[in-house]
Design brief:
Elements lengths: L6 E3 L4 E3 L5 H31 L2 H32 L3 H16 L1
Antiparallel strand pairs: 1-2
Helix pairs in contact: 1-2, 2-3
Length: 106
């Protein structure tokens, strides 16, 4: 049993409704890029900075980098929110808008 045109993942309790709409696909790609960038920064860039530079210099470097970090990820999430809202994905668009607002406030 299931919905017409949906694919059921056995044992997962998840229905896939077929291909994603273009706005949903672009929104998903932007969210994945933002998440990947944040994980790369936390797991790669920050530790490398403190291995390559003395603690005081590394701290100064990261303090100068954080405004750019917040700007880039704020713009990416705001763009994802706008595309989601334009594509009729209201819940996703509003949630991503809140995330973008968080980047702007921070």
């Amino acid at each position: 049993s299931g919905r017409a045109g949906a694919h059921y993942l056995r044992g997962q309790g998840v229905f896939l409704e077929g291909p994603m709409s273009p706005p949903a696909l672009v929104t998903f790609a932007l969210v994945c890029a933002a998440l990947g960038g944040m994980l790369f920064f936390a797991g790669g860039v920050a530790p490398l900075v403190f291995r390559a530079l003395p603690v005081a210099e590394g701290g100064r470097f990261l303090r100068r980098l954080f405004p750019v970090y917040y700007l880039v990820f704020g713009v990416v999430t705001a763009l994802a929110a706008g595309i989601a809202l334009a594509g009729g994905l209201w819940r996703e668009g509003l949630l991503l808008g809140l995330v973008a607002l968080g980047f702007a406030i921070a």
